[in-house]
Structures are given as C-alpha cells and as structure tokens.
Amino acid sequence: MDKFRITGGKPLRGRVSISGAKNSALPCMAAAILTSERVTLHNIPYVRDIITQRRLLEDIGATVLTPELRTHQISASHIEIFEAPYDLVKTMRASVLALGPLLARFGKAKVSLPGGCAIGTRPIDLHLRGFEQLGAEVKLEAGDVVARAPQDGRLRGAEINFAKATVTGTENLMMAATLATGKTILNNAACEPEIDDLAELLNKMGARVRGAGTSTIEIDGVESLGGAEHTIIPDRIETGTFIVAGAITRGDVEIRDCRPEHSVALIAKLKDVGVQIEELNQSTLRVSGTPKLRARDVTTEPHPGFPTDMQAQYMTLMTQVEGRSAIAETVFENRFMHVSELQRMGARIQIDGHTAIVEGPVRLTGARVLASDLRASASLVLAGLVADGETSIERVYHIDRGYERIEAKMRALGGDIERIRESVTGALSSDLEGDAAMA
Ligand code: EPZ
C-alpha cells in the first residue's frame, strides 16, 4: 500500500490548478443512465472514485470512452443489468446514485444497501422514502435494495419533504423525477453547488428542473431524455484544502481554475482567522498566510454553511494559531477520526461530544500516522507540511479517492512530499519521477 513521506517546514509558493469536482462528476456520470444517447463530460477528476463509477457503468452495460484523460463519453444505449453490486457499493457509497436513474428509465433497480463508513452510519432511508413517494415499491432483500416502478413502468411525480437536507438523496430523487409522470417538488432539498451542476446537465439533456441550488426544487417529468455535453465545476473542497495549505505554511499560493463563489462561508471564516485571501478574478484566488493567525470557533452545516468536508483541514490549521477554538461537527456523527492522529503529532485537542476543542499554537512533530477517510487524510498531509521532521502517512488510498495526485501538486508548490509505492513484492519506490506527467 502506498504511503506519503513528508518533511515539514517549507512554505508553499507558486500556482496550482484545481481539478473537477468529484462530488459533481459522480452524479453526472450516473445521470447518463437516464438516456440511450451519448453524454460527454469534461473536467472529470482523475481520482479513484471516478474509476469505480466508470466500472459500475461498464458493469451494467454502458460504454465509457475517454478521448482524453479528463473527458468521458458515456453511452447507456444497451443496459442489460439493473444492479449496483455489493463489491462496488462497499468501496464507494455514491454507487447508490445509480438507483434513481435505473428505476426512472427501466422501472427496476437493485443496489446493495451501503453499510456505515468511518464518518458515520450514513443511512439512505430518505432516498428510499422518496422513491416510495414517487410510486415505487422498495424492498430490502438479502442486503440489497430492490425497487420497482408501478405497473406501467413509470414513476409518478409527488411532493417530497426531506426530513434532513441530504446531498445524494436530493440528487437521486431529482434524477428519478425527470422521467416521472407529472410534477415533483423536493422540499428541504440540499443546496450544494454540485446539485446545481447536475441540474444544469439534466436540463441540457432535455429535463425540466427548476430551483436547483435552493431548498425547493421543482421537476416536470418528460417522456425521455437526450444526449448532452457538459463541463464539471471545479472542486471546492480541493480549493479549500489548498487555501489552508497556503495559509498554514505561511506561503503564497495562486489557486487557479477554482470558483470562489462556491466557497463563501469557508473564505469568510478563514479571513476572520486572519488568512489573506484575494480574489484575482472569477476563477483565481491568491492566498498568503500571515504570522499572526487567530483561533475562531466553527460549526459545520449543509451548504451554504461551513462545509463538513473542510472540518478536518480547518482543525489542523487551528492547531497552528493563537488561542482556543471549538469545532462543532453537526452533519456526521463520527467525523473526528483525524483527532487521535493529530494528537500523535503533538496537537492539543479535546473531544466533547460533537465538538473538538483545539488549543494553539503547538509545534507539531513528524510521526507515523494512519489515514482513516478522505478528508482526514488531507488534514494529516497539512499537518505533515508544518511539522518538525518527517511524517509518514499510511493508507493514502483514502486520499486518492478524491484528490488528483495531491502530492505532486503540493511538490510543485515546493512542499517536501513524496509517495512511497509498495509493490506487491513489498519493494518500496518513490514517485519523484512522476512529476513530468502533471504538466
Ligand atoms: C455527500 O454525501 C458528499 N458525498 C459527502 O462528501 C459530504 O460530506 C456530504 O454530502 C455532506 O456535504 C458525495 O456527494 C458523493 P448527506 P451524502 O446525505 O450525500 C444523513 C467527501 O468527503 N442522512 O447529505 O452521503 C447522513 O447520515 C464526502 O467527498 C440520513 O439520515 O451526505 C448525514 O448525517 C464524504 N438519511 C446527513 O444526513 C439519508 O437517507 C447528511 O448526509 C441520507 C442522509
């Protein structure tokens, strides 16, 4: 298994380009199941979850061509299998996004019920409840969700009130409703920019979706959908991670190909901490860390609130600033797996229920640490970049799920970081030769 070796202390300087958003590319790829015509997606990030989604599409009978690394041409004209199997779902919960499109277009779908994950139990009851309201019969059989549309094979529009704002729940129901008869209204829908991006693609395919990005989404069902071409939005969480990287190393980083308007709450909080963030233009930010950063409390919330996917990275920053900060995690019930690893590096963090109390500043020292989930891994990379000495992060396959070659991007900014590959024979090699490929 690959690991990262990092030696801290170098300020990051230079330019970095942000990749496409994993959490938009995944539902947009699933949306291709809704039509027999070709859907072309540009700016797809080269990360492991995308490879898993591609495999799911090919397993059900779709073809996925990649004329270039970040462009996928998906044709779901010959779907023969209406199932997302356990082997795939257990590696990536977002496989449940196949449920809505399969059910809507073919009137049947079988998806393995995702289990819990490192950050929480993460049930999909709100997804399933929504499909029932669209007229589907939903059963659990041997660990699989088996859903069937009414006799005529078409779902029926309905008014759905989500008990909780759910991102993939909103995406699944929005996709399903595009081919239902009549109107569907989603109340208390999630408002993340990725939902807006998916709706833009659906409307290019001929759907009639209004209000995406707000808490009320209306969808008028249509008979069928066509092909389309769409460019995925930049990844706002990768953007946030590099803003923190520039600030925590007291560096000077220009972040290109991003969308500052998708990170308003995060940027406001970091400015309040004292980070200098300049919007050079609509897609470029300049970040420079100042010596005197100060502690600020934060509470994670659904968009447009402070993103839970930036909580771990923010915590690492709070270990390096003056004062005490309270970090309240309200979206997931178990998203503090990074705390014990940061404590191993010398961080002073106390957990009190869903709140972590951080005392700073402390000098972190390099150590061997274990990545537990995608964003926790990013917080450990940031800690390694400022720690004294060497840090070794194991199980970096977690970070590869959602960051495109983060170590090469950090190295291009002057960070002392490399990937240590462990071959099947156990031989170790470094990826320092790989930089050229990034250009
Ligand atoms: C999406 O997950 C993202 N994943 C997550 O990003 C992100 O952390 C999360 O939204 C919140 O922003 C993708 O888009 C692929 P939710 P999702 O449904 O949709 C509860 C990353 O790091 N809930 O909005 O699974 C749930 O348990 C990942 O890139 C129910 O109770 O999150 C949680 O407490 C991690 N029943 C809350 O709602 C349901 O049916 C919000 O979850 C659905 C959700």
Give the arrangement of secondary structure elements.
Layout: E1 3-7, E2 13-17, H1 22-31, E3 38-42, H2 48-60, E4 63-68, E5 71-75, E6 83-84, H3 86-89, H4 99-106, E7 108-112, H5 125-133, E8 137-141, E9 144-148, E10 159-161, H6 167-177, E11 183-187, H7 193-204, E12 208-210, E13 216-220, E14 228-231, H8 236-248, E15 252-256, H9 264-273, E16 276-281, E17 284-288, E18 298-299, H10 311-318, E19 323-328, H11 337-344, E20 348-352, E21 355-360, E22 368-370, H12 374-386, E23 390-394, H13 397-400, H14 406-412, E24 416-422, E25 428-430
Parallel strand pairs: 2-15, 3-14, 6-7, 10-11, 18-19, 22-23
Antiparallel strand pairs: 1-23, 1-24, 3-5, 4-5, 7-9, 8-9, 11-13, 12-13, 15-17, 16-17, 19-21, 20-21, 24-25
The structure holds ligand EPZ.
How does this model look, in words?
This protein has 439 residues and is an alpha+beta fold. 30% of the residues lie in helices and 26% in strands. It contains 14 helices and 25 strands. A 5-stranded mixed beta sheet has the order 22-23-1-24-25, with helices on one face. Helix 11 runs parallel beside helix 12 (374-386). The longest helix is centred in the first third of the chain and has 13 residues, at 48-60. 50% of the residues are buried. It binds ligand EPZ. The site of ligand EPZ has 23 residues, from helix 1, helix 5, helix 6 and helix 12.
